[in-house]
# Entry
Amino acid sequence: MTDKLIIFDTTLRDGEQSPGASMTRDEKLRIARQLERLRVDVIEAGFAASSNGDFLAVKAIADAIKEATVCSLARANDRDISRAAEALKGAARARIHTFIATSALHMEKKLRMTPDQVHEQAMQSVRFARNLCDDIEFSPEDGYRSDMDFLCRVLETVIKEGATTVNIPDTVGYAIPELYGNFIRTLRERVPNSDKAVWSVHCHNDLGMAVANSLAGVMVGGARQIECTINGLGERAGNCSLEEVVMAVRTRRDYFKLDLGIDTTQIVPASRMVSQTTGFVVQPNKAVVGANAFAHASGIHQDGVLKARDTYEIMRAEDVGWAANKIVLGKLSGRNAFKQRLQELGVTLESEAEMNAAFARFKDLADRKSDIFDEDILALLSDESVTAEAEHYRLLSLSQKSETGERPHAKVAFAAGTSEFHTESDGNGPVDASLRAIESKVQSGAELMLYSVNAITSGSTESQGEVTVRLQLGGRVVNGVGADPDIVVASAKAYLSALNKLHSKAERVAAQG
Ligand code: KIV
Ligand code: ZN
# Structure
């Protein structure tokens, strides 16, 4: 006998709350489509009432996604809930997720409400939401640090009012697996109508136990929904990581005996897309999706794996979507081969114009780089000239001179709308000189918060460099990503891409509660 474990992905809501991880509507839509290919059960698309930008993002996702349930977060008040319902109107399957804090600390210090007032507001909100949508999730924020008797009272009420899922957040990542599992079990035993709702776990990773706590909530507590994010993205130390819980449940099916709807071969493409979009690089030794997760460096391990893979491998790299660095295309590859490879990678381009732009970028890259790998193709798809996002600034050319003992110098030409700028500067290094040259013309005044370079395909200096630049200006934080075989060019592209986002009207949101 097995039963289903619901995977609720909140990369686009709780993941996005991570400072610097906010995304544009187009970026969110692209990730939502990948989450659909991954076949998650629920996509929490955002927090519709938090801003017009997030409202439009939730709406775009609700309109586009056909298989998964699309969910919007809403505080426990009529305005938030109405906004969520409005944004979700076009969804094939919609869920409203409403929440209010229930711990003594949060009620007293943050909400300045009495427990009775919180109980009343939870009741009224779920009643109101249930009139707008059949699928209602309720979360008592900071639930794990809440008084058990009070929590039971609130949960019994919201289930009576029609909440179909009740989620118990460990908002501050304070839980310990055994204690959290027991907490969920006690709640389920003590709430008289507990069998009328699906129980869900939502764990933060402050003590590095979000995955363990979530799994204990399932095995000890009897929860049947896990809330998680790709790469464990999220505020502070992040949320429970989707790839880790999914692969734990799948690899140890003998123990968990639970069914999953996930297409695990889409895990690595999803991880890569989220990392590229947000600029949050995945550590090499990260389970499942880290570059070293399947690399056997020691002689003993290599020997064992060559004789029989299962000596040291508990999962197969290809089952989670790692394709060995395969040369897939080159200079002579035509449009059809390119199109077919995109299909094999599960990528859908929205229009013929996007396909033309992607193919042009591919040809340009193939002229400069002999072997094109899957990773190169995925990187060029994140280029703004392909994704039709507002592209005010465009790099036209760059040359730089650096010599031992000399101060590096860069000359950059770039377009800004219909104008063209030629600029130059010295710098500590060629990257510094190039970015200074651009900034001297644009004068954005933005603060550089992060600069990182990664090789797109590991193990070779022929790889393209992928640069992430994070800029902050007036409370807005944006990421720009650029890829090129020349890392100075990649850096200039990344900088201009971040400037484009600051320039763009597309409102970015940090969906804070
Ligand atoms: O961590 C938390 O408490 C949340 C809730 C809004 C579900 O993200
Ligand atoms: Zn959370």
Q: What stands out?
A: Residues 6-278 form a domain with the TIM Barrel fold (CATH 3.20.20.70). The chain has a mean pLDDT of 91. The pocket of zinc ion (ligand 2) is lined by residues 14, 169, 171, 202, 204 (CB under 6 Å). The chain has 18 helices and 18 strands.
